[in-house]
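## retry 2 of 3
previous attempt timed out at serialization; input unchanged, resubmitting
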Amino acid sequence: MMGDKLGKILIVSDVHAKIPEMVDFFNLMNEKEEIDFAVHLGDFWSGRNFDPKKGVQIKNEWHDLTYFERLPFPLYHLRGNEDLTQPDSWWTVPNMCLMADQEPFYLNDWKILPLDYQYRGEPADEIPKHLEYSRETGFDFVFSHRPPLGLLDDTLHFKTHQKLSGTGSPMIKKYYDNICPSLFLFGHFHYSNFLQTECGLIACLDKLIRIGGRDHSEFKYSYALLDPFDQSLEIFWKSRQFLKYSILEQKILVLNRFDKRNLYQKKSRLFKKRR
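## retry succeeded, writing output
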């Protein structure tokens, strides 16, 4: 549990074993922002990454636990589908901690419910561990690897690019309906998108690192920043601001809308709140 700090909270997802590149990014962020700690939304130790030089998807794995001594600030995790086989000891190395699945976790004054990935169709993906959790339980945010069933859960198959619907979790949907968090953040789909509900904002974060440029040496980063000082959330896609949201007012202050996944083309700046 972390609290009593006023620096920003960096939130990333789907590092897929690009650990040195992640640490380089953390150091860059530590120079430009006041970051107290970071949260990772799953798929950390392994996963597929596109190799632009070879033009194929490759599987990356990471096993060097001593490397995390280089982190400039603490990093907190929940388990994604690529993380389910790693032992608990891997999450307790210096500067890292695993948030307990479906148990309260505090970031500053915010009460968080972290949700690990559950296999689709399994009983654990149908029934919450804590049926007693409700609005009165006082959770502010939910962090997850998957979305709730029926809420921002349309995606594309990573090989065929055919549209997939209803890929969210029934268990997570029950938590969402019972808790009604003001902010719900997840990863897994590898694109940036959002949805507003009567509770607040649901947002998907793209994978942290993408490689581009003519010589395939240019790194672009997708991430979010939670600011406890002004109670705001900023989301960045490929190092550009995608959205800024006031948590207290439940209003979008800035929105640069991007098409989904296979297009990622900037449409237009829709609006910006006048100050």
